[in-house]
Amino acid sequence: MSTARPPRGRQVVLVGLPGVGKSTVGALLARKYGLDFFDADDCLEEQQGRSISEIFATDGEAGFRAIETATVIELLSRPGVIALGGGAVTNEAIRAALAGRDVVWLTQSVGQGVERIGSSTHRPLMAGSDIAGTLRRLKAGRDPLYRQVATIRIDTDRKHPGRVATELAAALGWGQDLEGED
Questions:
Q1: How far is CA 150 from the centre of its chain?
Q2: What is the domain partition of the chain in residue ranges?
Q3: How is the cofactor bound (predicted)?
C-alpha cells in the first residue's frame, strides 16, 4: 500500500475538551510521520518552571490564559503536530491565529470525557466532584468556538487512539494505518 507523506513543514493543530485525547493522538500521528510534537500545556509548564495548577493558584485563570496565548502563538510558528489546551480557543487572539491552518477538533460525549478524566488532578478546571457538570458547561461554551476554528472534526467516543489517528491521517490525505499504535 502506498502511503502519502505529509509535506515538509506541515502543521496540524488539535483542539477539543479536556480528556479527549489531543496529546495521545497528536503524539501518535507525529511519531508515525516523523513530525515534531508539541503539547502546548507541557511547553507552557516547561517555560514557566511551574505546573498549570500552580499558575492557576497564583495568577488565576486570566493570568494563565495570558501565558497560554504567548505560548500558543510561539508554537504556531513551528511545523509539526500541536495539541492545544482545551480552553485555548476561548482566546480571540488564538482563534485568529488558527485561521487558515489545519485545525482538528476531536469531539467526545460528556460520559466518555468523565471516563477518560477519572480522578485526574492535573486539570484545574476539572477539580471537584461534578466532572460531568463541568464538562457539560465547558462543552456548551466551547463547542461553538471549536466549530469556528476547525477544518476537520473527528469523534473519539469508544475509539482507540490509534483508530482516531488513522481517521485523522486519512482526513488529511496522508493514509496509513495507525490502529496498532498505542
A1: 12
A2: 12-172
A3: Binds 1 Mg(2+) ion per subunit.
Residue 100 marked as a ligand binder = no
Q: What are the cell numbers at 122?
A: 492535573
From 178, 154, 137, select the one nearest 35 (Cα to Cα): 178
Residue 175 assigned ligand-binding role: no
Q: Which of 2, 11, 69, 71 is nearest to 35 (CA)?
A: 11
Q: Is the pLDDT of residue 107 over 80?
A: yes
Residues in the chain, overall count:
182
* Gap between the Cα atoms of 121 and 158, Å rounded: 23
Strands (E), the chain: 11-15, 37-39, 80-83, 102-107, 152-155
Residue 80 annotated as binding?
A: no
31 is annotated as contributing to ligand binding: no
The pTM (predicted TM-score) of the whole model is 0.88
Q: Is 159 annotated as a binding residue?
A: no
Is 111 among the annotated ligand-binding positions? no
pLDDT one-digit tens code per residue, 72-86: 999 999 999 999 999
123 is in an annotated binding site: yes
Q: Is 20 annotated as a binding residue?
A: yes
139 is in an annotated binding site: no
- CA distances for 109 relative to 12, 17, 112, 119, 137, angstroms: 23, 10, 5, 17, 13
Judge whether 128 is annotated as a binding position: no
